[in-house]
Structures are given as structure tokens and as C-alpha cells.
Design a protein that fits this description.
Radius of gyration: 17 Å
Number of strands: 7
Order of helices and strands: HEEHEHEEEE
Number of domains: 2
CATH architecture of the largest domain: 2-Layer Sandwich
Strand order of the largest sheet: 4-7-6-5
CATH class of the largest domain: Alpha Beta
Distance between the termini: 39 Å
Largest sheet: 4 strands, mixed
Shape: elongated
CATH superfamily of the largest domain: Fe-S cluster assembly (FSCA)
């Protein structure tokens, strides 16, 4: 049971404070992971879309969502939607800007269009390795500014 009246706005505000464990500059909202929020007298139900189905951090993310809502006195059920495939196009413009400041690029589409360099914006980039520091990122190289960078996998 909730300790105070629930509002969908309170849930969204709490979700905005839940960072991605591997990219802490962005929240689950910035990443476009929130599929739905439902609020009733029993609490909140939050449905998230995994950015990567095999992500080892899904349990951590669910726990952080529950904890953020508990701090607001809200009970929450957290589920992961498996009927929707997360795509980088779900990332908010604010999230893209935050990732670029961190040196992480976001592919524009699922096709093979070149990834823009987060440092200089050039599209003259190439993939160096599909295996980045996490399962959801790859390592790229910019021929224009000669900087290596990470990009989220499409």
C-alpha cells in the first residue's frame, strides 16, 4: 500500500532520477526505456524496455526503479516488456546530448548508415570492434578527428 496519494507525475519524476548503470549521465527516461506507467490505489506499475536483452544490469535497474519510488513513498511493480525491441531512436534529444558529452555516439537508424562522431560530428567513421566495454556498445574510430569513441549498438 502506498503511504500517500499516487500520481503518474510523481512516478515519472522518480524515474528521471534512475540512472543507467553503465551510462550514469542518462536516466531510464533519457534512454527511452519506459514503455508504460500505470498508477492505481495499490501503487505503480512500470514497464521498461531493455536496451539489450542480454543486459546483465536489468535486475539492478528494476531494483533502482523500485527504490526511487519507495523514496517517494510509492510501491512499485517493475516488469520488462519483451514485445517491443528497444532502438536508439527512443533516446530523447536530451539523452543524446548527454551521451555525446560523455563521448558516446548514438546510431541514427538500424541500417548501416555511418555513426556520427560525438566529438566532431563527422560521419567519416568506422567500426573498430563490435566488442566494447559493455554488451550494448561498440568501439568506433573517426577518420576526421582521429578519435576513438564508443557508440551504442543499434
Amino acid at each position: 500500500m502506498s503511504t500517500r496519494p499516487l500520481s503518474e507525475e510523481a512516478v515519472w519524476q522518480a524515474l528521471a532520477r534512475v540512472p543507467d548503470p553503465e551510462l550514469p549521465v542518462v536516466s531510464v527516461i533519457d534512454l527511452g526505456m519506459v514503455k508504460s506507467v500505470a498508477v492505481d490505489e495499490r501503487g505503480a506499475r512500470v514497464e521498461l524496455i531493455p536496451t539489450f536483452l542480454g543486459c546483465p544490469a536489468l535486475g539492478w535497474i528494476a531494483e533502482k526503479v523500485r527504490a526511487a519510488l519507495a523514496e517517494e513513498g510509492l510501491h512499485a511493480e517493475v516488469d520488462f516488456a519483451l514485445d517491443v525491441v528497444w532502438e536508439p531512436s527512443r533516446i530523447t534529444p536530451e539523452g543524446i546530448a548527454k551521451l555525446r558529452q560523455m563521448g558516446v555516439a548514438v546510431p541514427a537508424r538500424r541500417d548501416r548508415a555511418p555513426v556520427a562522431c560525438p566529438y566532431c560530428g563527422a560521419h567519416d567513421t568506422e567500426i573498430e570492434s563490435l566488442f566494447g566495454p559493455t554488451p550494448c556498445r561498440a568501439v568506433y574510430y573517426c577518420r576526421a578527428c582521429r578519435q576513438p569513441f564508443e557508440a551504442m549498438k543499434p
